[in-house]
Amino acid sequence: MNLYRLCLLIIFLGGYVSPSLAQVSKQVQYLSGTDNEHTVEWDFWVTGGRKAGKWDKIAVPSHWELQGFGAYNYGRDYVTYGKNFQFHDEKGIYRHSFQVPKSWKGKRIAIVFEGSMTDTEVKINGQLAGEKHQGSFYRFSYDISDKILVGKDNQLEVTVSKMSDDKTVNNAERLADYWILGGIYRPVYLEATPTAHISWTAIDAKANGSFRSQVYLSGISQPGTLHVDLKDKTGKTVATKTVSVAAGDTVKSMELQVDQPQLWTAETPDRYEAQFTLRSKSTSPYLHHERFGFRTIEVRKEDGIYVNGAKVKMKGVNRHVWWPETGRSVNRKLDLQDVKLIKEMNMNAVRCSHYPPDQSFLEICDSLGLYVLDELAGWQKAYGTSVGKKLVKEMVIRDVNHPSIILWSNGNEGGHNKELVDEYRKYDLSDRTVIHAHHRPGNEINGIDCNHYEDYYSTKKILEGPNIYMPTEFLHAQDDGGAAAGLADIWELHWNAKLGAGGFIWDFADEGIVRTDFNNTIDVNKVNAPDGILGPHREKEGSFFAIREIFSPVHIKMKSLAPDFDGRIPLENRYHHTNLQACQFTYKLVNYQRPYANFAGIDSAQSQVIISPDIAPTAKGQLHLNLPQDWKNYDALLLTAIDQHGEDIYTWSWRIKSNASILADVLPLQTATTVDLQEDSANYMLKANGISAFISKKTGLLAELANDYSMKLSFQNGPVLVDGSATLKSSKLYSDGNKRGIAFFYEGSLDSVRWTMHPDGWLQLEYAYQSKGNVPFAGVSFDFPENYAISVKWLGNGPYRVWKNRLQGVTRNTWENMYNDSKAGIGPWTFPEFKGYFSDVSWMQFNTTQGKFLVATAQEDLFVRLFDFYGISGPKGYPALPTGNISFLDAIPPIGTKLAMGINSKAAVNGPAGELTALNRTISRTLYFYFGLPKGEKENTQFIMPKVNVLTD
């Protein structure tokens, strides 16, 4: 075995390989590869589908579908065919030859499978290793000591059936709302130990420093001792104990006490190591190592979930084990990436839906800090009691010592066999609470209600009690719906309610699979699997950043700088265990690029580190910025919070200069001409500085545009109201100094439209309209062909689009997005999306195949809608869009979720932010347009980013 595999083995198993011949520990030899990137070829035969009926080679571990064998199945396929349909069960036959070292003679040798889908029959040298294993997501092993030929070739044959002979296993695992795959998808290896050895341990280490362990022994034929050393993260021994072992002992209990241990929480993931040594007179000492954490988990009924005496709220997400090219066969790097992404969203918890994950994922949750719900499979139907008992044992024995696991989940949405509840405590010394992740009333258990997909108002009712409420699924994130939309409202309910324990958004990433039978196209099974906050390859959608802001443990409600702002920012510490003194804060005063700069972003900045305030967990206080005297000369203020581990928490932005001040920098141009106003039978024509605008006499709308240095522009047919109707009543021409224009007056919802041409070519549009009642959107639209768009650059919030109930996660800057037709959940997963609603726009420059044009406003809170898009796919795209292609809006719609009330759900059920906008007034707005590159102006191709001036105390 090479050094690479040996190192991976130590990480993977938590085992130990001693360089000393005087001590022994478990030895491991991989028969397969170690993960989806490091595989070993075995011989393979599949009974059905592609490449059926002939021997070939297959990479192990893997799913055979993704290696070009068999057929793809989504779980609902089995349901669709009906109860009487006899689905063809593909079987895969694997063969592999191997040798074991001669030094293994006389040792106990086991073959271990980390995961195989689904029924797995193992033969060694033609002999059955043991009874067929049933269940896809669990580690299982066989003692094959009496079947191995030491120093000679051994033949391994494994038959894997995609469907189980046990109907309850199929019901629990295979008739599910996810991809159903086949094969040996996790590693296979041999373990060699002395006859007398430590099989496994169960540890209970409490926050008060008490340490208890049950050490399970095997093959003890003579008396000896069992010794344990507890070591901290520096390797220092902090406690020891030795107990005697008698012949025939199978389990020994050990208790120790550590003074003032460093405690494990999701915020402070400090761990220790227990080194167990089994000794006897005639054998070498046997070593076994376990990592653990001191922490106390309490479920206080009619109160909350406590970690080390502090009530915690779960900012969680559901996660499938998944990678598009390799399915549920993954690797440590992917697990690490996912944990980091979850923590980047300022989440503190993850639910392993709907099965135990790879061991490495749990190890990383231990080391980086996430609260974990480890779940027995059971998607709406449960395992039978007989097979279920075996699988509970396999899951708990493998995972019991992970400090990150705070609760066991006994199945999902009705997949709860209540006869299994007492099985968990047989193997878990710490006796963690068992929950039911359910979607039907009456399945609450042990004082915790986990009911799925409750809305804002039903959540309020449930939070009245008597149970702790922790929805293990909520805000279903199909496409661009759910996830962060409505999250702020629902999170505030949980944060402020005594019985609110937070919850777990559905879900982490779109479960898209690369179809080897369809030219490697990514398939999300239409609306079934695109439920992620991220795309299949972890592409970040807008909800990712909104969640990051909403879940920020540094909570800031301040939306704008007051006229008397003196540098004091109110803060709320939403950590459960961390004082904000442990964090860092920096601010920047920034100036943004103007429209015709060659790139987007910050023009110049001054920054300063701030003294972190002393604010205890869950308390409130203030952050004081030591602002320079000239701070009001800058465009905006940015504040960044950094956690105790050096990771960014979030950056907030507030405008300093008004849009009117920004506009004063944008409008002045170097050239001007006399404004010419002409008319014919159909149109008025306004012309200045080489730009001509044709306004329809019949409607008052922009009919045509042209300039002297490019083709005609197709921006036209506006302003058209997006809500309401109007009939032209009259018009009049006017002059205003050196400007000239036309005013139009209407009956109906539109009051007036005024077009004014400035001598430098700026075209000013003033309009007033009446909005009555609750509206999904309000404002005006224009037509422009989407296929002419190349990019947009703007000053405003970005770079992601927003919805009325998902305004978070965007910051003020100069942004630029290239055209793309990406659709969340469907692809091509290019983010940020080019199309959508964009908020608080000061100006926006359109780069098109017909040239550039610019729109600007002196007013705040302008939304710009770009082209046709939707949030959730279905019979019709949802929600409905305004008329036209480009809209300038004073109100935009919220978005619902797939499951709140069906595909056309009302977003209002998820909280006040989802209500339609109430506008019962006349709204007036002024826009400025420049159609082309101004004469005398140049694209600043030589612009160099200035150095940032750093202010220090």
UniProtKB/TrEMBL annotation:
One of its GO terms (molecular function) is hydrolase activity. Its cofactor is Ca(2+). It catalyses: Hydrolysis of terminal non-reducing beta-D-galactose residues in beta-D-galactosides. Pfam families: Glyco_hydro_2, Glyco_hydro_2_C, Glyco_hydro_2_N. Residues 203-295 form the Glycoside hydrolase family 2 immunoglobulin-like beta-sandwich domain. Residues 1-22 form the signal peptide. InterPro entries: Bact_Beta-galactosidase (IPR050347), Beta-gal/glucu_dom_sf (IPR036156), Gal_mutarotase_sf_dom (IPR011013), Galactose-bd-like_sf (IPR008979), GH (IPR017853), GH-type_carb-bd (IPR014718), Glyco_hydro_2 (IPR006101), Glyco_hydro_2_AS (IPR023232). Residues 56-194 form the Glycosyl hydrolases family 2 sugar binding domain. Keywords: Calcium, Glycosidase, Hydrolase, Signal. Its EC number is 3.2.1.23. Residues 298-518 form the Glycoside hydrolase family 2 catalytic domain. Monomer. Belongs to the glycosyl hydrolase 2 family. PANTHER family: BETA-GALACTOSIDASE. This is Beta-galactosidase.
